Amino acid sequence: MKTRKPTARDAAQPRLPVVQGIRHGLARVLSKQGTCSRREAARWIAAGRVSVDGRIVRDPEFPVVAGRAVIRVDGLASAAPERIYFMLNKPRGLVTTARDEQGRDTVYRCLDGAGLPWVAPVGRLDKASEGLLLFTNDPEWAARITDPAQGPDKTYHVQIDALPDDVLLQRLKAGVSVDGEHLSARDVRVLRSGERNAWLEIVLEEGRNRQIRRLLAASDVGVLRLVRVAVGSLALGDLGKRAWRMLEPHEREALAPTTGR
Hints:
single chain, alpha+beta, elongated, 261 residues
């Protein structure tokens, strides 16, 4: 795992854990427990399904002290579920979200019938991209994975509609400014070339929205296929399309320390 100095972007987007003894908004506490997403918690609260110390609360920002207040959902005590961590081989055509306003199929279709507790994707792959996507109900672990300063590198195999030369490879590593953002790759190499297109291996230190596609488009290069093949030391391997598997303890710890709960 790499170590580099925090950037101004990191400081502008702090990820703070729920600390015992400190008051936090009710929706945030439910989310950090791994009970549900923060948005879902807000919906439950607004619907009157959540009580704190015996009283129905309808304000998602109602301050509570995690570990002290008795929180119930539909009359049942809310407790942190068992932490789970797994990887999915995402196919093309699915969006990485729990609910899509346009009614498109989401990555959760791959988990139908699995009987899993609430889990959330760790980072994103856009609809046209495929490959390794992590899931967990441990928000603090997820935040370590996606941390721009200390999270693990992400490795992609990318088919492009051009034949790369040294100029392109160096430009991708040096980076370009796109819409006010500096986009670059930590490493780029040619995997194989054909008559009209080629496959590149691109390693990113941090994943910004459609970063590889935008970076290549700045050089008038289009993406034909984009597959995430590794996150840190965790490789996609021979996991089939739409298939998923739990991470081994040593795999998840190699990516980032877990909360231990």
